[in-house]
Amino acid sequence: MSHAADSIANPGGTRRSLMSRRELLAGSAGMGLPVIFAAPARARPNVIVILTDDQGWGDLSIHGNRNLSTPNIDSLARDGALFHRFYACALCAPTRAEFLTGRYYARGGVRGVTTGAERLNLDERTIAETFRSAGYATAIFGKWHNGSQHPYHPNARGFDEFYGFTSGHWGHYFSPELEHNGRLVRGNGYIVDDLTDHALEFITRNRNRPFFCYLAYNTPHSPMQVPDRFYDKFARFEPVMRCHDPQLEDIRMTRAALAMCENIDWNVGRVLARLEQLKLADNTIVVYFSDNGPNSWRWNGGMKGRKGSIDEGGVRVPCLIRWPGHIRPGTRITHIAGAIDLLPTLAEMAGIPVVGDKPLDGKSLKALLLGQAPPWADRMIFSLSGQRVSVRTQRFRLDPAGRLYDLESDPGQQRDIADKEPELARKLRKAAEEWAREVLPNVGKDDRPFPVGYARTTLLPARDGVPEGAIKRSSKHPNCSFFTNWRTKEDRMTWDIEVARSGEYEAEIYYTCRAGDVGSTVELTFRGSSVRGRINEAHDPPLLGAEADRVPREESYVKDFRPLRLGTIALEKGRGKLVLWAPEVAGEQVADIRYVALTLRQ
């Protein structure tokens, strides 16, 4: 086996050279991949989009980071194109919405990252709908983060297959609870490896037809968990490249993030090797990018800001695209671009029309990628966080406070030149104000209810509910939390729901209960209809997560919840408050609650 191929199979290796496609294929045996040869004839290219979570621009060796080695990801730049200045949003769900629609996220109703604010409006058409309408098999593996219940669910937004989770982050990365096409399942092994396994199976199964595969990894987002075989290399590592202010950097966080990034790289190598084995590489567009800046202070090219910021370091992310025979190897795109551009770019390169009649904010980059570009006009790309707007041109950035920076000479945004360039500053301020007036009305208070009855079973997680009385969440971060401290008859959990179809629904709660607290009666009510049940069996599993964390977390720990059937409740079509409470409390507390599940009887 060649040294390059060995660096795929051996994630603890330090070799930094880029993989050749021949070496990728040779290394497949080291990854446990069967060598499968097929050469289907097709007119349209396959598309694989790999999106990482909280990976900064600086978290790749192709960008000069000597702390880690990412040869498989880097190979996309050697064999295809690298964008020098590619922009996403400051946080996860907004970037996903912009990629899915080609439109700024505020236009699509996305207001935040949890408790329903992450949902993409139902009148927005997605990239998956565009490709499925052209006959593509479509799938997403990983983190969705744009709505959980149908019709916000990925299976209702153009994806034939979904395996992963719908919330903003997950609490445990080793064989966790996941979802497969609306059904709760148990994952198999480390989550990124497992997601890749499912993507490889989808690619193989659809090798004789065009496919669109969205591989949405949820790392290096916290909690910082990664297998030993990746972490051991960094356990005592002292980074040779540091944050611009080393006092801000938590070395433990950096070590874990570096290990997680090398795990991602290993899995990207597995995807590329499978394409070679199936003889699909030449007819497959592979896109790799991240959703925002790094989730900790670590080396990021000296840029100002990190995740959550709309300065350069918070929104400038990696983007690499490979399409053999079409994109010239080693192409470098210096023009600014962003996540909003991927839908029109991929659709045009595939030769298919974009579904939907709403105007796109993004523009096709096909001509740039294929070396066919006419003179390229300067453009503005806007960034939004809350009510704050920043705007980027090819050379300059105006921040929310009206400070102007020349990013060619001042990439760290240290010198405000607004007074030296008053006309330019005035022009950009006016553009930012006009854009804000256009989009900010869409990001006000979120009054959308959670839909029930569009699919046979609807899961209502604690994340989407409201605790009342003494009840509280298991973490201040709602995404993978559960309700706890349910102690009295006055305590309530409520969900603002809208029932799409009247009917009889089987009601279940997913609970845990200590042996000494067994015996409480719980009741679920909705607009005058109710169902009661009794907790007769203890179920008190341990909390999971701390044993695998490389860095102390803020997210909730998790545990395995058991379903308890309450019975049948009649739900009438319309909007109202679904309430879970306890008429009788037998012990110190009633139970901890993860989900309410409602299944329409047929």
Outline the structure in words.
The protein is an alpha+beta fold and 602 residues long. It has three domains: 51-369, 3-Layer(aba) Sandwich (Alkaline Phosphatase, subunit A), CATH 3.40.720.10; 381-443, Arylsulfatase, C-terminal domain (2-Layer Sandwich), CATH 3.30.1120.10; 450-600, Jelly Rolls, CATH 2.60.120.260. 20% of the residues lie in helices and 24% in strands. The protein contains twelve helices and 29 strands. Mean pLDDT is 93; it is low at 1-19 and 24-41.
Write the layout of secondary structure elements.
Layout: H1 3-9, H2 21-26, E1 46-52, H3 71-79, E2 81-83, E3 86-87, H4 92-101, H5 127-133, E4 137-143, E5 161-165, E6 177-180, E7 183-186, H6 191-205, E8 211-216, H7 228-231, H8 251-277, E9 284-290, H9 312-315, E10 316-317, E11 319-322, E12 331-333, E13 337-338, H10 342-350, H11 366-369, E14 381-385, E15 388-392, E16 396-398, E17 404-406, H12 422-439, E18 450-452, E19 457-461, E20 466-468, E21 472-473, E22 483-484, E23 492-499, E24 503-512, E25 521-526, E26 529-534, E27 562-571, E28 574-584, E29 592-600
Parallel strand pairs: 1-8, 1-9, 2-12, 3-13, 4-5, 4-8, 18-23
Antiparallel strand pairs: 2-11, 3-10, 5-6, 6-7, 9-11, 14-15, 15-16, 16-17, 19-29, 20-23, 21-22, 23-28, 24-27, 24-29, 25-26, 25-28
Helix pairs in contact: 6-8
Tell me, rounded to a whole number, the average pLDDT: 93
Total count of helical runs of at least 4 residues: 12
CATH topology title of the largest domain:
Alkaline Phosphatase, subunit A
Please indicate the count of domains.
3
Low confidence ranges: 1-19, 24-41
Distance between the termini: 57 Å
The amount of helix comes to 10-25%
CATH top level assignment of the largest domain: Alpha Beta
Question: Could you give a short account of the major beta sheet?
Answer: 10 strands, mixed
Give the neighbour order of strands across the main sheet: 7-6-5-4-8-1-9-11-2-12
